[in-house]
């Protein structure tokens, strides 16, 4: 058992993280011209949800409309100049999981310099297995620590809050909407990718506008300029709040203060609504 962002993670889940961060073959995004120049095989396979989140496929520049799936062996067999250009292209196109050598060479060791352009690299299993602290450090790098251990009184009217607080989902998909609904008693909501429509229906049927930040049962809802709901969180009393920052396998259901969640969610064009649970 290891601890990531203040949350205990089992060895089984840690093994799955290795597979999601460094699958046997991972995607690289290129233009048709680059694929031809670098002699890279195009493969239009369907990515998994975990692929989508690990590599931020939803964020890739549309110019890079070709996908190449490479194993570590195939990647390392490329000419060094090609590898360097390919990695630099991933950064420019917005691909995720292309960390800097400066940040990680002290933890991973000299092996990381074997496959880089001098500044960036991509994760492979050989880099994640040893030393043992690499993967927990990588996943927890951008996460604020869950503060569930600091909560002294859990809300009696929302018994599932304590069960959910300080846990990682079993993969990508489970998101903020499902977390809020599950904490409020909707069975199984924490295990699915809850889209806007069922969340809006639940919100309309089980809440009314209003609520206080320091009492349990106030649902925070952030909407964009088109009034589409973008994020949700639930107050659990004494200034604490439960939320899941995204649908990614890397983000846990965590407890932070109301002020911390509001600060972390501040986005240009978003407005905050409060709804209180009724019935």
Query: Which blocks of ≥5 consecutive residues have pLDDT under 50?
Result: none
| Widest sheet, order of strands | 5-10-6-7-8-9
Number of helices: 12
| Tertiary shape | elongated
Chain-averaged pLDDT:
92
Helix-strand string: EEHEHHEHHHHHHHHEEEEEHE
Specify the biggest β-sheet.
6 strands, antiparallel
Strand percent estimate: 15-25%
N-to-C terminal Cα separation, in Å? 40 Å
DSSP summary, beta strand count: 10
Could you estimate the helical fraction of the residues in percent? 25-40%
Could you tell me the radius of gyration in angstroms? 21 Å
The helix/strand class is alpha+beta
What are the key terms here?
34% helix, elongated, 12 helices, two-stranded antiparallel ribbon, single chain
Please give a quick description of this structure.
The chain has 279 residues and is α+β, with helices and mostly antiparallel strands.
How does this structure look, described?
With 279 residues, the protein is of the alpha+beta class. It is 34% helix and 18% strand. It is built from twelve helices and ten strands. It has helices spanning 11-21, 32-37, 49-54, 72-77, 80-93, 101-108, 125-128, 134-140, 160-164, 176-183, 196-206, 258-265; strands at 2-4, 7-9, 25-30, 66-71, 207-209, 218-223, 229-237, 240-243, 254-257, 271-277. The strands form three sheets. The protein has a six-stranded antiparallel β-sheet with strand order 5-10-6-7-8-9, with helices on both faces. Strands 1-2 form a two-stranded antiparallel ribbon. A two-stranded antiparallel sheet has the order 3-4. It is elongated. The mean pLDDT is 92.
């Amino acid at each position: 058992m290891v601890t990531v962002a203040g949350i205990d993670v089992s060895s089984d889940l840690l093994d799955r993280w290795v597979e999601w961060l460094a699958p046997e073959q991972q995607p690289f995004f290129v233009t048709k011209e680059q694929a031809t120049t670098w002699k890279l095989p195009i493969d239009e396979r369907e990515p998994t949800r975990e692929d989508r989140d690990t590599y931020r496929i939803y964020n890739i520049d549309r110019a890079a409309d070709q996908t190449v799936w490479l194993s570590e062996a195939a990647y390392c067999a490329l000419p060094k100049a090609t590898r360097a250009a390919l990695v630099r292209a991933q950064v420019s196109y917005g691909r995720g999981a292309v960390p800097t050598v400066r940040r990680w060479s002290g933890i991973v060791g000299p092996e990381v310099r074997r496959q880089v352009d001098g500044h960036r690299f991509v994760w492979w299993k050989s880099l994640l297995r040893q030393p043992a602290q690499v993967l927990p450090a990588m996943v927890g790098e951008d996460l604020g620590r869950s503060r569930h251990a600091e909560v002294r009184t859990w809300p009696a009217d929302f018994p599932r809050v304590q069960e959910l607080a300080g846990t990682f989902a079993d993969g990508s998909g489970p998101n903020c909407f499902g977390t809020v609904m599950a904490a409020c008693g909707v069975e199984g909501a924490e295990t699915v990718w809850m889209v806007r429509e069922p969340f809006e229906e639940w919100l309309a049927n089980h809440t009314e506008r209003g609520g206080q930040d320091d009492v349990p049962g106030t649902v925070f809802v952030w909407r964009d300029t088109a009034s589409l709901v973008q994020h949700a969180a639930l107050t659990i009393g004494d200034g604490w709040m439960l939320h899941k920052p995204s649908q990614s396998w890397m983000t846990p259901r965590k407890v932070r203060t109301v002020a911390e969640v509001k600060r972390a969610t501040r986005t240009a064009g978003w407005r905050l609504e409060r709804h209180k649970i009724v019935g």
